[in-house]
Every structure is written in C-alpha cells, then in structure tokens.
Amino acid sequence: MGSDLPGQALQAIPDALQETVKTGWNSLMAIEEPGWQDWFHERIGQVAQALARSDFLHEQLVRHPDILLPLRDNGVLDQPWCPGEIREAWAHDSPSIETEEQLNAALRHFRRRWMFRTVWRDLLKLADFEETAGAMSELADVCIQGAVDWLYADACREWGTPMGHDPVTGEWSAQQLVVLGMGKLGACELNLSSDIDLIFTFPSGGETEGSRRSIDNQVFFNRLGQRVIRALDQPMADGFVFRVDMRLRPYGQSGSLSLSFDAMETYYQNQGREWERYALIKARVVAGDFNAGGQLMELLHPFIYRRYVDFSAFESLRDMKRLIQREVRRRSLENNIKLGAGGIREIEFIVQAFQLIRGGRDPVLQDRMLRTVLGTLVELELLPESVVEDLDAAYVFLRDTEHALQGIADKQTQTLPEDPEGRSRVALIMGYSDWASFEQELADHRARVNGHFADIIASDEEEEASDSAADSWHDVWIGTLTGNAARDWLSSNGYEEPERSLELLAELRQGRTVSTLQREGRRRLDRFMPMLLEALSGEDAPSLILDRSLALVESVLRRSAYLLLLTENPGALRELVRLCGASPWIADQLAETPLLLDELLNAESLYSPPGKEQLHDDLNQQMLRIPLDDLEQQMETLRHFKKAHVLRVAASELRGTLPLMKVSDYLTWIAETVLDHVVVLAWQNLTQRYGTPTDGQGQHVEPDFAVIGYGKFGGIELGYTSDLDLVFVHDSDPQASTEGTRSIDNAVFYARLGQRVVHILNTQTPSGQLYEVDMRLRPSGNAGLLVSTLDAFQLYQERDAWTWEHQALVRARWVAGSPDSGKRFAGIRRDILCRSRDPESLRREVIDMRRRMRENLASTDPAIFHIKQDPGGIIDIEFMVQYLILAWAHDYPQITEQSDNIRQMESLGEAGVMDPEWAERMREIYIAMRSTIHRRALQRQNSEIDASAFPEERAYIRRCWEAIMGETLDAT
C-alpha cells in the first residue's frame, strides 16, 4: 500500500493547509502499530481533514497509537456520545489501580483517549455543541470522582476516617469530601480545553478515627484536596488531566482549601458578595458525597436566590457590566470571543442577570444550563422571542468557535488567530470557504449580542446623562435649596403647590425611617428622589402626584432595591408617575404591594391584560413551581397574581384601551381564575387528609363541588373593590363517606372544603386579602349550612325561599368547581325562574323590598345623588329587570339564559317583554352610571356625587319605574 497521500484527499483542503496535511500524513505512515495504516487509508478523507484542522489530533495519533486502539477497534469515533458511557468506561478501567502513581497514569491515559474522541467528533463536525459540552463535562466529572474515590480511601488508611455529626440526622458517621463544580463544569457546558473551577467542602467538624494519631477533619480534607488537585492538575510524563482553579472558594486564595457546611453557610450569609451569587448559580455537586452535597445546596439556596424579585441585583450587575467593559478596553480583548464585546460572557451575563433578579420568584429560571434558561425567558415573556433567538444562535456559534480554537492544539484560548494558517483552520472547522466569510458572520453575531447586552442596564453614557439630570434636582431633595429659591424652582417646573411639596419632602427627609437608614439605603434614596422630582415636573399636577408617590417611597425605604428598580428603569419610573397621577387607588396598591412595581417594567403587557385562557395558563405556570403542600406560598402567589392583573386592567381603563364592559369582564375572569385554583388547592388539601368522597357503594366520585357566584360576580360586573357573593353546593351522597384512614362523612368533608376555600380567600397575609367573601345568600342565610347539596338547594328554592332570594337568583351562575354540578345548578335556576307567578303579588313584594332599601341606604342629603341607591339609580334598573324576568320567564324562558344586567335587558327587549327602545336607553344609562362608579373607585371616591348629575337619565328611569312597577318614585 502506497504511503503518499492521494490527490483527491487534498481537494477539500485549503491551499494554506495542504503542506501541513502532507507532512502529517507522512508521519502517520511511519506508525508501526499493526492495523493503523490500513485504518488511515480506509477513512483517508477524515484523516486528511483531521490533520488540516488539529495539531492535537495529529500529535496523539503519532505519539499514542496504543492508547487510542480502543477507539479504533470499537468504532466509537463514529458514534455520538451517550450520557454515562464515559463513566462506565472508567468503572471498567479503575479496579486495577493499586498505587497513586498508577492512578495518575490511568487518569491521564483515560483523559487522552476520550479527549481525542471528543475533539475528533467536534472538529470534523460529527458532533454538535451539546454533545461536545456534555461529553467534556462527563469526562471531567468521571476524572474528579475517580481521583476522589481512590485518594479518599488511601487517605483514610493513612490518617484514619474523618467522623462527625450528619447535618440532617445528627448521627455520628463517617464524613466524605463534597466537590462542587462551578462555571461551565457546573452547568455541564465544559469546553474542549477548559479549567475546572472547584470548591471542596465537607459536612461537619470532628476528628479522624482508626489511625494511631487522630487529626482534625479540616486538616484531613485539606490534605485530601491537595492530593486531588495534584492528581488532576500536575503536569507529569503523561501530561495532565484538567487544570484546576480553586479561586472561587470562600475567601479566595487566602481561604482554607476546604470548609465545613456550617462554615460555608456562615461565610455566604455574612460575607457573600454579589459576584459569588452569580458564580453559585451554576454550582453542582460533581464528586464525593452527593447526598450531603444536596443538603449543602439547599443551605446555600437562600443566598443565591431571593424569594422575591431581587431588584437589588440591578446595581451589582451594573457594576459588573462596567468592570467587564473596562477590562475589555484595558486588555485589548476585542479579538477574544469570550471576553470581548458581543462575546460569550455577555450572553452569560444577560441570562444570569435574569436568574439573579427573578430566579427566587420563578424557580424555573434556576436551571444551570444557559440555553434552557434562554428558552424559559421567552416562556415567561421576560425577553422577546427574536432577542432570545439572536442570543441562542450567537451562543452556539461562539461556543463552536471556541471549540475550534481550543481543539487545534488542546490549548485554553478564546483569542482569534492572526496567522494565515490559524485563520484557515478556524474557517475550515466552522464550515466557511475563507476567513473573510467566517469573520463577517462572527461580527454579525457579536454586534447583535452587544446590542442586547447594552440594553440590559443603562450604558455609561446613559448613566451619566441620568445622573446629570438628577443633579439638577439634588439640592431640592437634600434641602440645601430653601425658602423662595426652592419655591421658585418648583413653581417654574410646574409644581402647583410648591410649599406643600417642600413640606412633604422635609417630612420624609427628617423622618425617623430615613434618619436610621443604612448608608447604602440612603445612597439609593438620594439617587432616586431627584429623578422622581424631575419626572413629576412633566405632569399636570406634580404636587398632587408627589403626595401620592411618597406613600410608595416610604413603604420601600427598608427595601431600597425597589428604588433601584425605578432608578435603573426610567420607563418604569415614567409609568409609576403616570399611574399615580391618574389614580390614587393605584398609588395605594403599589404602596401596599411594592412587588407590583415589577409590572411597570413591561409597558406593553401592562396595558394589554390577558384573556381568560391566558390567565389560566399564567396562573398554572406560576403554581406548578410551588409545592402543593406549601399553602402559605400558594396563597401569597395567588394574591400577587390577582393584584398584578387587576393593576393591568386599571391601567388599561385609565389609558382608554378597555371600555366598561371589558373592564368588568377582565376583573370577573381574574376572580374566576383565582377561585378555580383555590377550589383545586382546597380539594387536594382535604383529600390528602381525609381521602376522596365516595358514593353509596364506596366508589370514588369525581369532584362535584361547585361555586355559584351571585351579585356583581354572578352578573359579570365586578369592580376593583368588589367582594364575592358566593354559594357552595355539591352533588354527592351526604350519607356516604370518604375513603382513607381518616374517613369522614361526605357532608363533613364538603363543609370543611367550603371552610378551606373561604379561609384561602379571606385570610390576611403579608400581601393582603385575596377577596372578601359574603356567604349570606346561601339557603337560610347565616343560619344555613355553609355547603348544601343540590337537592337541598332546589328544595329550599322551591319551598322556602323569599322573593328577594329569587331576585338574587336572577344574577346567579356557576363560576368554579365541577362543571357537571354547575350544569345541574343552571337547570335548577332556570326551573325556579320560570315558575308561574302572580304578577301583582310579585310587583308588591319587589316594590316593598326596594322601598326598605331606599329607607336604609339612600342618601338623605338633597345635594347628593347616590348613583346606586337613590331613586333613578342603578338599583332601580336592576329591580325592574329582575321583576320582569320573574314575571315573564314562564312565557319567555329565553330571558333567563344570561346573568348580567346588560344582556338581560337586551333579551327582554328582543322577547318583547320590554319596549326595545326602553331596553336600549336603559342599557345606555346603566353603562354610564356604572362607568362613573368605576372611575370614582380609581380616584378612591364613593358612589355619592353631586345631585345635579344625570338629571335626564334619572328622570327617564323614574318614568320607566312608574310604567313597569306602577309606582311613582320620589325625585329627590
């Protein structure tokens, strides 16, 4: 067989690399190991490409053909990496190791073999990025674990076994080393020639047992750690395994090589810095005692992820960004694809910024793998899909380029080559015909990444401009500008009550809370307040809005991260000023629940509340991240969900993008979504405790508990402060019982289920009350059962219910729980409403009920018109509608199909029960009056307005009442 490289094998090789390939081929032909030359000729095209792309591959083939024999003979070069195969291979090789020297040699031979396979597959484009990173990470894991296992056993023979208290059980037991992998190793994204960042730790203090002289556990693990590092890192005749970097451990290079769990927890709680939170995001137990390591990660979790949206991370991330930019300029790193502008670190920064800020609230962001988190950012609507697509494509491209640079010579580098041969190699590996084509694609990716990176936190130029604008208001805030000068300044900038504004600022500045702030909190306040004052100057009534806004400022003084949110996001500050100016009610909501400030970050979603299906999906996604047995966190999340979405509705109404009917629809959908989850939550809680209700034969029954909404809820007319009028029913056999060891009667089960639903809705938590619940409309009112069977409900409505209860039934509907029970309720409602009634007797009862309401609830001041209760108001319209439905449903059952007044009036007109023109006019008046109530609620005002309002409308309603009810309403 000839030794010359055939010409066709060179055709796919760039001219600049052909001599390199020829020289390499000749050296391969000199290998005397049997079978190799045949193998080279069989895959001559691949071999020529390998020689063109990598000195490392060439060198390994020449120097170590004996070590690479298993790769050749088993054909694994053509097979994709399968998770676990490298671990299995080490398990097969390691039993024969008897000395530390043999361990060192075995690790290096093992690394060489699998490294060759990984580089071969990556550079020849037989593997994608995910395979390469996964294989390299598993190789590192296996080598670390192999070194730890053998050296720990050997250390125990020499120094005794370290003993201590188990952190969980408290029992005295043997202690083992725990190795944390950081960075790309922790994320299972290791590159081809990377350092491995490690932290050594152990469960608890104590001493060794079983040797002639005991030593302290920390001394034991420090010595063990030194031996592990030497086994992996030290260059020997067979090379090295992995370069080990221990600088991420507590106290850095000056700290102990290993620390106990208690010492680790104490360090991070008391001295941990923001960049260490950033680093620990990717931390993973890679070797040693995995169970104990899992306990350690639980201990460190609160340090890494705050349970709230952690806006304080903005400031530290901004500082880190500035350091990155300075380092790039100082070290001229523009050709570095990791550290330079638009490089890998900027993508990592973007992703980990969201993880730090929101990972505590959204556990799905706590994944270590960057590309997984990128996808989650789209699902959570934290980044547009187009931005994530840019970042993901750039990340894969840059990581592939990194592998190309490192695979050439097994060298840790991220710097683009400047020599023609190096550039030809990189272009060839990356699949480009020449360097220029590759360089243009790289530049495009980096430009997109750098643009998105700059958008995360204000650039230096933006920051300087912001500081300059704030400085102009600085003297006003700190009080160095006083008297007429301060009043003139505020007045010239639009403040309508400058003296009042200065008084408010002084009260805040001199208050106890501000005077006792720590230095960092005061610095944030002093930076924020000038920006707020300037932002207010562009509004119509700055003094008024300042008064409203300061309640929020005071509520977050001890949680100044919220001030950072507004400082770092001018758009959010603009929305805050706009909303506080438009509605004191919204200002109150933000002050009571500052977490809602998060909603101001995305103006598009703030003014586009989601529909009912999206609400359900959104809540389900949030609840999936919370354990079902964590009722406290479930309740907190429900309250934040409700408040956040109600805020969106209010903001949209104020902007004019939602008409009244839609506002009520959205508020009702929010309540239905919340209530539906509350029922599921309560059901799961009760069935875990008592088992599932059964029928009379002991068979499980499907959940048949239903919630019926009355009043505004049933009528799809909820307002911002409405309570929920609810009735609970079920359709199971009350004499049967639940299955389970703590079996109870079905009747007791459903009573407790209803109590649990009310508890979840009514309870005051740190985030307030979910909804106030009114159960007085249930059969027999407060004296009746909390939960009735549908049979009992029907019997009560047929025999014992008062006329006013049938009036209430007009606006009742199923809102949550079992749809089947809801359908049966709808049938009962229709049958009751369609009963034949004496119109005259009915008319007298309705008039009498309305008269009593006016006597107790109508205003007595002739200068005031109560929109709901006074003659000619909303209640008169509702009573007329209810009377007509009860009087005529027997003849026109279709008028019972709807539960809301608007569509009921339409159906009455369509059926001819009411003159269609009357119905339309009454509908218009009803909407106008309800709109006024909505607007006044947002202004924190009640339903009493000037008596001169709605004169024509009230007169029209009185005429309708006289015509329909046969009674003259008092015009006062």
TrEMBL record:
InterPro entries: GlnE, GlnE_rpt_dom, NT_sf, PII_UdlTrfase/GS_AdlTrfase. Its EC number is 2.7.7.89, 2.7.7.42. It comes from the Bacteria. Pfam families: GlnD_UR_UTase (PF08335), GlnE (PF03710). Residues 45-292, 574-826 form the Glutamate-ammonia ligase adenylyltransferase repeated domain. GO terms for cellular component: cytosol. Residues 469-972 are annotated as: Adenylyl transferase. Residues 319-456, 860-935 form the PII-uridylyltransferase/Glutamine-synthetase adenylyltransferase domain. It is an enzyme of class 2 (transferase). Residues 1-461 are annotated as: Adenylyl removase. GO terms for molecular function: [glutamate-ammonia-ligase] adenylyltransferase activity; [glutamine synthetase]-adenylyl-L-tyrosine phosphorylase activity; ATP binding; ligase activity; magnesium ion binding. Keywords: ATP-binding, Ligase, Magnesium, Multifunctional enzyme, Nucleotide-binding, Nucleotidyltransferase, Transferase. CDD domains: NT_GlnE_GlnD_like (cd05401). Involved in the regulation of glutamine synthetase GlnA, a key enzyme in the process to assimilate ammonia. When cellular nitrogen levels are high, the C-terminal adenylyl transferase (AT) inactivates GlnA by covalent transfer of an adenylyl group from ATP to specific tyrosine residue of GlnA, thus reducing its activity. Conversely, when nitrogen levels are low, the N-terminal adenylyl removase (AR) activates GlnA by removing the adenylyl group by phosphorolysis, increasing its activity. Belongs to the GlnE family. This is Bifunctional glutamine synthetase adenylyltransferase/adenylyl-removing enzyme. It comes from Halospina denitrificans.
